[in-house]
Design goal:
Helix content: 40-55%
Structural class: alpha/beta
CATH superfamily of the largest domain: HUPs
Radius of gyration: 25 Å
Largest sheet: 6 strands, mixed
Number of strands: 6
Strand content: 5-15%
Distance between the termini: 77 Å
Oligomer: single chain
CATH architecture of the largest domain: 3-Layer(aba) Sandwich
């Protein structure tokens, strides 16, 4: 019988089977550090409690197992910290909490919008940039989690093999359907680094279904976050997530301690004129919670958002922001269109119109094209479309 089959036989309560790739098994047997990423959600706690008896059966020392939580500040449910601490205590594992030093997720959204406005004012970007994360630009998982946890582990456990245990599952989304059961992580400990640190990511419950996860919690008496038990969320994320379903947004809004965050984010929707999710305003998920003045501001923001999109759609499409932007200098008539489209958007956000006419816009594009000319010599040869 193989080591994996023997492990299954000895640990019949582990059901369904966890993913245990040979590389991960070998590293566990060699005494790697196991770091359980706990979010407070059902999948991370399932990964923890499913993996623990496997580690015991492989002879892995318990003192080389820790839990870590990336605290997203105001974006977190109030009860998440207590839930994470309870889960770690039940597993008899040390918990470390890390936070981004330059602000929480709400701060990051504000910072992005302010930076975007500054770039728009100086015509360093073609379209005004909104504050929010997206499916392809997820501040919560990149800057707020990975970039906080990864460097910390690389410093604290320098010279060690580190396996981060993360509870993602393939049936969560189409994006995760192709996720591997493990992978090397060279972002914070490159191959051949001087310290000899090696990092890996392991997804032990990658093939579990949602029903499997809830059944596992019930069978083993593992507590669930109040988002599931009291408010009917299908998953735990931030209080309000850019990838959240409408039903889960409404579930979050039903929790009184989430309502201050709701008002805060809706106010940023109103100020920025960008909806929290593409095609859906967070304000519309619980309009009964809005003060009358904010409800009025949102209606104005929706109108201004539509107007902004109309204005920007009239600008030359081939000049939209891309790598190496701008690709060329606009014609005189195109530059005049750009200036006219920008003016009301700049006024809406109380920004200074530094390039108020076609001549100024055209000169600015010429300056930007010249800046990206090769530094090795020779004069740039910017292309200008024919009028």
């Amino acid at each position: 019988m193989s080591s994996l089959n023997a492990l299954r036989a000895r640990n019949s309560p582990i059901h369904p089977t966890i993913a245990l790739p040979p590389t991960i098994e070998h590293a566990i047997r060699a005494g790697a550090w196991l770091v359980f990423n706990l979010s407070g959600g059902k999948d991370s706690s399932a990964a923890l409690f499913a993996a623990m008896p496997v580690l015991d059966a492989l002879g892995h020392p318990r003192e080389r197992r820790i839990a870590i939580h990336a605290d997203l500040g105001r974006a977190e449910w109030d009860s998440t910290a207590e839930t994470v601490a309870t889960i770690a205590a039940l597993a008899s594992i040390t918990l470390t909490i890390r936070r981004r030093q330059s602000g929480d997720l709400f701060d990051r959204w504000h910072q992005r919008f302010e930076a975007g406005k500054a770039r728009y004012e100086e015509l360093s970007t073609y379209n005004l940039i909104g504050p929010w994360s997206s499916a392809s630009l997820r501040f919560c998982t990149s800057e707020q989690k990975a970039q906080v946890i990864g460097p910390y582990l690389a410093r604290q456990l320098a010279g060690e093999t580190i396996i981060q245990v993360i509870g993602i599952r393939r049936d969560e989304s189409s994006a995760r359907a192709a996720a591997p059961d493990w992978k090397r992580d060279t972002r914070f400990a490159a191959d051949g680094n001087r310290a000899g640190t090696k990092m890996m990511i392991w997804h032990p419950v990658i093939d579990w279904s949602t029903a499997d996860v809830f059944a596992f919690h019930e069978t083993h008496g593992i507590p669930l976050h109040e988002a599931y038990t009291r408010h009917g969320s299908s998953r735990l994320s931030c209080r309000y997530c850019v990838l959240q379903s409408l039903a889960d947004q409404q579930a979050a809004a039903s929790c009184p301690s989430n309502q201050e965050a709701f008002i805060h984010l809706v106010a940023l929707e109103a100020r920025s004129t960008f909806s929290f999710q593409p095609g859906r305003w967070l304000a519309d998920s619980a309009p009964h919670l809005l003060p009358a003045s904010l409800a009025s501001d949102i209606e104005r923001a929706k109108h201004d958002a539509m107007r902004r999109r109309q204005l920007e759609s009239g600008m030359p499409s081939d000049l939209r922001f891309q790598r190496g932007w701008p690709p060329r200098i606009p014609t005189t008539s195109e530059a005049s269109l750009i200036a006219a489209a920008r003016a009301p958007i700049l006024r809406r956000h109380e920004l200074f119109d530094r390039y108020p006419d076609g001549s100024a816009v055209k000169a600015r594009f010429a300056e930007l094209v010249a800046r990206r000319a090769p530094a090795t010599g020779g004069q740039p040869r910017p292309h200008e479309a024919r009028p």
